[in-house]
Amino acid sequence: MVPLPRTPNVAQILDEYLNSKAKLSDSSDGVVAEVVEGLRTYFDQALGMLLLYRLERAEYTDQLNQQPDQPMSSVYGAEHLLRLFGTPL
């Protein structure tokens, strides 16, 4: 298991990607921002059901109980974001 919270976390990684895309081109900023927000939302929804190993579920439950209003994209990091892209739908 990886120690939580992670730095950088998923939200920071996605924000950094969005900022780097904005510097390169401004023609599709709205589309890129919408995709990034969709990824963040999907990550927050999918984490507990699809992305965690069995041994990580207790830690996830503890995080939810300690800070129920905090999105998990601000707690988990790149390791779990990569699982999102490798998970079949």
From TrEMBL:
Q: Which Pfam families does UniProt cross-reference here?
A: MRG
Provide one Gene Ontology cellular component: nucleus
Principal cellular location given in the protein's record: nucleus
Instruction: Keywords in alphabetical order, please.
Output: Chromatin regulator, Nucleus, Transcription, Transcription regulation
Q: Tell me the Gene Ontology biological-process terms attached to this UniProt entry.
A: chromatin organization; regulation of DNA-templated transcription
Alphabetical list of InterPro entries matching this protein: MRG, MRG_C_sf, MRG_dom
Coiled-coil region list? none
- Domain of life where this protein originates: Eukaryota
Report whether Transport shows up as a keyword of the record. no
Cellular localization per UniProt: Nucleus
Domain annotation MRG: ranges: 2-85
Name of the featured protein = MRG domain-containing protein
